[in-house]
Amino acid sequence: MDSSPEERLRHIIHHAYQHAPAVRAIMDGAHVSPGDIQSIADLDRIPVTSRDKLIELQRANPPFGGFLAVPRDRLKHIYLSPGPLYEVWAGGTEFMIDQMRKSFDVAGFSKGDLVINTLGYHLGPAGFQMDEAIRATGATVILGGVGNQDLQIRMMLELGVTGYCGTPSYLMALIQKAEAMGFDFRQSFALRKAWVGAEPLPSGLHQTFVEKYGLKVTNIYAMSGVGPVAYNTEGGREMHLFDMPIIQVAHLETGRTVAPGETGQVVVTNFHEALPWIRIGTGDLALNLDPAPGQSRQEERSIILVGRVGEAVKVRGLFVHPNQLRLAISQVPGIARVQGIVTRPETRDELTVRVVLTNGEGESTTGQTVDREQLIGCLSEAIRSNCRVKVDRIEFVSSEDLAEDARLLVDKRTWG
User: Fold this and answer.
1) Cα-flanking dihedrals φ and ψ of residue 376, to 5°?
2) Tens digit of pLDDT for each residue in 74-111?
3) Distance (Å, rounded) from C-alpha 175 to C-alpha 188?
4) Which pTM value belongs to this model?
5) Is residue 416 part of a domain?
6) Which bin fits 228, alpha (ψ -120 to 50), beta or left (φ > 0)?
7) Which among 236, 265, 287 is the end of a domain?
């Protein structure tokens, strides 16, 4: 669709209002009609719908919460993102692959490159969609997925892999693994380009990639159901926006776009006819940077991500929602409550789970001694299955050490 953002916006608003009952209900509730939305500035009239609210709507009206706006026979793929949240891929949305391809163009991927894609191909959309976008640049994709580091290192070495797609922490893990195997990474491997995302990239780690390993690093801010939103190639925290989807930085209470230099929530409006998301709050807080307010195009603006709102916490590139932890707990007898704590002592996120047993620190409600090793195994597997994230350690604490009203997920990371 070769048209202006405003024309795309007017089209998707009319389409969503006509075919997606949830969008119609949101707009009717705000007394807004499709004809009222003629420009991006007019979007401020539509309330922001948080990601947590999307999850609630899908749970109340499964599977898509009233947002599906095309017949089911048009769907090519259905994904399950953390939350859990159903998302779809359908015919007629090829422009989204083109948008993703732009991020790999920025990273310098082109015909002749061999790119290892380490994003997950299982359940979620990231691996598959990045796969298509990489191939659209003319490059060849190595289906790495998550795990099997020894095999991935062997493939990178023997095939002469030149590009990487995945999280920055996993890239560093591969490099450190290769070094532990006795390789001089910069001399032995052909890798020179890295597309990294799904988690923050600290400036120190970016500098290490560039100066020690000779990599060109492109840091991408992206989200499922939307694709790449912004990028950074020079290090630092400023992220340059792509021309689409529509990105606003909105006031947390009023939902109105904040002025340049102010902080608000990143709010997205996509052009996905199958699953149109109109003013969806990502939960990410950002500083709004605009060199020419009222005159600049979106691709001339930038944001600086400064934190999170809402309940979900991103761990190793995947959002973990408290509801997922609650479900995991319910599957393991003998546990009164838990708390997940996310830290980052070096270059990798670590998830520690604190556990209070149902009757004191060492007994079950029946008075029998709890087999802690067995419980650790069961709970670790339940969390891995429900949250798709591996637990690094489980600690048993007393009820006095973990209050009943304590937050279920705590993020103790700091970013340099």
Assistant:
1) -60, -45
2) 898 898 887 788 988 776 556 677 888 899 999 999 99
3) 11
4) 0.76
5) no
6) beta
7) 236
